[in-house]
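Example 397, ligand pyridoxal-5'-phosphate.
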Amino acid sequence: MSDDIRRQYGLRPIINVSGTMTSLGASIVVPEAVEAVRAVLPQFVEIGELQKHASRTIARLTGGEAGFVTASCAAAITLAVAATMTGDDRYAIERLPDTSRLPRDEVAIQSGHLVGYGAPVDQGIRLSGAKVVPVGQATSAESWQLAGAITERTAAAVYVVSHHVVQYGQMPLAEFVEVAHAKGVPVIVDAASEYDLRGFLAQGADLALYSSHKFLGGPTGGIVAGRKDLVRAAYFQNGGIGRGMKVGKEGIVGTIAALEAWEKRDHAGIRARETAALRLWRDTLGPFAGVDAHIDPDPTKNPLDRLKVHVEPHEARTTAWDLADNLAKGERPVIVRDHEVEHGYFYLDPCNVHPGEAEIVAARLTEELEAARRSNTTAATDLLDRRRRKAANNWPD
Ligand SMILES: *Cc1c(COP(=O)(O)O)cnc(C)c1O
C-alpha cells in the first residue's frame, strides 16, 4: 500500500484500529467499488435509470421491494421520515420542512435511541420538519409507552440498531414493530453500521437504512431499502430537502459495486484474518504487567470481535488514555477505539487494517508499554484536562 496521497497533503500515515469512523475516512473501499467509481466518473448517465439498477441490487440483497442510494445514512434518516409525512405528494415535498398543512408530522423513538453518531439522531429526524416524540426513559421503554406516544399525528416510528444506543431496557425490534403496526405507523430502522442486510426488514420494518461506507466498503453513501411506496416517496425528496444530500453517479455506482462485492466476499476468510490479528495483539500484550486483554464480541452481534485492553495504571505505569494518546503519536500513529477510555480500557478493532499493519500495531504496543515500564513514574494525565483538550477545536487553525 502506498501512503503517497497522504504525504502529498501533509497527512499522517495513520493506522486505523478504531473501527469505521467518518473522522478517519470511514472504511477501506473495496477494489470493485474503486474500479466502478473510476469507470463512471468521466461518463454521463441517466441518474433515474442508474437508481433503478441500484433499486434492483438493493432489493436482491435486502429482501425489500425497492431501494435507492443517497448521500449517507444520516441523509437516509431525514428522507425516510420525510417520505412518511408527504407520501409522493410533490407539492408537500417542496414545502418541507414546513409541515403545517400535513396531517402527520410526529416521529416516535425510544429515549435510549436518541444518541449521536457524530451528529444527533434526533436532528436527522427534525431536519425533515418532523417533531420528535421520545418514548420511555433512557434506560427503559415499554410497549404501553410506545402505544401511548402514538397519536393520529404520528407519521413514523424510528428504531436505531447500534453500539451507540442504550444496550438494555429497550424494546426488541419485533415488539416495536408490532405496537407501531397495530396503530398503522410505519417503522424506519437505522442500521447504518450493521452487517445484517435482511433481518430488520424480515422482522417487519418498513424501511431499513444503511451506510455504504461502513462495513460494505463502498464510497460515501447511504442506502434506503424496503416498501416500494415509501422508497419512492423518499426518492422524490431529491426534488426538495434531499437536494442538499445529493449523491453523485460515483456514489451510486460505487454502492452497487460494494453490494455486489459483499455477496461474493470471502466472509470466513476475512473473519479468520481478523481473528489472527486479535490473537497477535493479545499475545503481544500478555507479558506486560497491568495490561489485561481479551477478545470481546460486537455489542450488536455483528460477526466481528475486538480486543478489549484494560490498563491498570500502577502496574503498567500508564493509563489507558495515556497509552491511547501515545500510540496515536509518532511515525506510525495507531488510532485505537477509545470512546469508553475513562473506564480504563480501549478496544483494538481489526476491521480496517491493511496487510502488514497488524504487525506494526503489535510493535507500537510493545514500544509504548516498554517505555512506560522503564519510566520511574506512572504517566497519568488528568482525564478532565484530556476532555478539555479534545473538545477544543480551532479548525482551520
Ligand atoms: C454512522 C451512523 C449513522 C450515520 O451514517 P452516515 O452514513 O455516516 O451518515 C447513523 N446512524 C448510526 C447508528 C450510525 O452508526
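Summary: Residues 31-264 form a domain with the Aspartate Aminotransferase; domain 2 fold (CATH 3.40.640.10).
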